[in-house]
Amino acid sequence: MAKFINPFTDVGFKRIFGQAINKDLLIDFLNALLVGERQVKDITFLDKELLPVFQQDRGVIYDIYCTDENDEQFIVEMQNQEQINFRERALYYLSQAVARQDEKGPDWKFALKSVYGVFFMNFELKGSEHKLRTDIVLADRDTHELFTDKMRYIFIELPAFTKEEDDCENDFERWIYVLKNMETLQRLPFKARSAVFQKLEEIVDIASLTKEERMQYDESLKVYRDNLAVKEFNIREGFEKGFEKGREEGRAEGREEGRAEEREKNFQTIRRLKHMGISIEFIAEAFGMTTEEVNAL
Known about the structure:
By secondary structure, the chain is of the alpha/beta class. The chain has helices at residues 10-17, 23-33, 86-99, 171-181, 195-204, 211-247, 255-275, 280-287, 291-296, and strands at 43-45, 49-50, 60-61, 64-68, 73-79, 115-121, 133-139, 146-157. It folds into two domains: 10-208, no CATH class; 213-245 and 256-296, no CATH class. The protein contains nine helices and eight strands. A hairpin with a 6-residue loop joins strand 7 and strand 8. Mean pLDDT is 84; it is low at 51-59.
């Protein structure tokens, strides 16, 4: 049985980095991330939900949204699986935070504060070199001279990190090691090096959760495991369908019958997911159906 919470769950991630009472953990991580560039001394958590300016606009809900003592903003997100237009989504998130700075009043003259987006990715980002950290800035294409420092993206590809405890060379790598291995550890390392890891161990110990917190965590853990199960299932289905498609390549007849068979395959998939215990709401969203339609199968 796990001793520590899974930091990739929504509840686990926000318990570590999203609580004002334990903001020193997020400050320590940000300083490890930006070592040699800047030092964050304090942060204030902001409303994670930005309502749209106009009724027809899309609102934004961040995992963690905060500002430091210089009014520079940090958006910190955990993503467990790649989404459609993931890069564009990150761009939209930071652009919204930049655009909201004009709410300071009519005398504001575009004196922008920097906005940092930190995106933990528990997957390999397609179309990119697989490395732990990718920093994106606005710079001249030819000279690489920085154009502005007001928008910064930092993508952290967790599967690319393969170091063991003794191989970690700096505090950033120590943080990544702890986060990636937390659920399998019986003790947190690096406590002798930094008191922040001692505090972290106390916070993430499952035994420290109240009854209500444990119920919320268990539900969050179920959603996380459901996502993993669906991902694994889709990989298997994709392999099987690809094999079948290879056998039947070149056959152009029976298109209507093929569409009917595809629908039936989807229905069979849904029934199997229900049998696996995947939530009805999750299945409905994944297949673009209503919960009533899923329940009827």
